[in-house]
Amino acid sequence: MDNVIDFDRYDRIRPIRWTGDSLELLDQRKLPFVVEYVRCDDSDAVAAAIHALTVRGAPAIGIAAGWGVVLASRTVEAANGVEAAAKLEPAMQRLNAARPTAVNLAWALARMRRVLTAAGSDWRAVLEREAQAIAEEDLAANRRMGALGAALIPPGSGVLTHCNTGSLATAGFGTALGVIRAGVAEGRIDKVYAGETRPWLQGARLTVWELQQDGIDPTLIADAAASHLMKTGQVQWVIVGADRICANGDTANKIGTYQLAIAARHHGLKFMVVAPSSTVDMETPSGDAIHIEERDPGELFGVGGVRTAAEQVGAWNPVFDVTPHELIDAIVTERGVIERPDAAAMKAAFGG
Ligand code: MRU
Question: At what residues does the UniProt record annotate the site feature described as Transition state stabilizer (predicted)?
Fold first, then answer.
């Protein structure tokens, strides 16, 4: 099938804007009703924005952290990169601590650290170029993954996605949502279902908003409706993003992903994970070793600031889960498609 993807049509949303002396983040806590950028003038403001989900999504928080290091560099005097690296390390540690599960954050900081320690007196310019490169490479990876992932989907398919994996979560176009955009453009996907994604409603607020702007009308479902949707034969693929893909293919993603994978296998549907290679963590052997972020239980007590839970209740709020590799039919990165991922296939694709 010809590649007929009009990328410009899908490239209107940018969650992260570098102005030359500050970072502007599209405030994802307020979408879709308020479209407002918040300005970060220093790296601690970026770390706070990552923690607060002002900017969110694995690739996006890596990109934001890269610019956070550039902002931190403005406060440091150093003759060369090695000296600067030592002075910037505390700020980098604070950025890294903002969220634990998505490996893209640590990956971007390691990349910034690596170029910095090799830099001479031009270390500031080196950092700025690297932050820009991280963003540009992410956009290119998403476009490539869109084409690779869409090619797996037979024409006339229905798909279900979870959380938000679109332009808002990346430098642009999206990971799983990029595959969905490409699949719709190529006539492979007829119907898109988006799960609400409690408690932050990334699906209901962000994915629906993004797709509507492309002229794609998703159908929203309650998270609890997913198994019934699968049983009624309306979807053939579940397509999700990832926050960390381990050396054996086990994948951490937004809470609720694991139960979708179990239900998909039960109903004989296919399950696709789409993520750039910056999400692959070959140093973590399996999902058991992933630090799953637990957020404030208060996030579960209401919707949009209105309390819905009975008073005095306790709550447990893990915000990611791990899908075992056995339940994944394909992992799509910009380097290619890994079908039925396991340790050997991951090693062949990404090295030891
Ligand atoms: O808590 P969030 O909104 O940052 O979680 C985001 C997800 O889990 C996404 O599915 C994942 O980061 C992939 S985004 C391309």
Answer: 163
Query: Would residue 42 show up in a list of annotated catalytic residues for this protein?
Result: no
Determine if ligand 1 sits within 6 Å of the CB of residue 172: no
Q: Which of 16, 51, 56, 170 for mutating ligand 1's site (highest number of atoms within 8 Å of CB)?
A: 56
Q: Rounded distance, CA 138 to CA 310, Å?
A: 43
As a whole number of Å, the CA-based R_g of the chain is: 20
Q: Is 319 in the pocket of ligand 1 (CB under 6 A)?
A: yes
As a whole number of angstroms, the distance between CA 65 and CA 338 comes to: 29
> Which residues lie across from 322 on neighbouring strands?
252
pTM for this one?
0.97
Q: φ, ψ for residue 274 (rounded to 5)? A: -125, 120
Q: Which domains does the chain have, with CATH numbers?
A: 2-141 (1.20.120.420), 145-350 (3.40.50.10470)
DSSP bridge pairs for 254: 320
pLDDT tens by residue, 77-119: 999 999 999 999 999 999 999 999 999 999 999 999 999 999 9
The alpha carbon of 123 and the centre of ligand 1 are apart by a number of angstroms equal to 32
Q: Is the complex ipTM higher than 0.95? A: yes
Is the sign of the CA dihedral 154, 157, 160, 165 positive or negative? positive
CB-CB contact of 242 with 252 (8 Å): yes
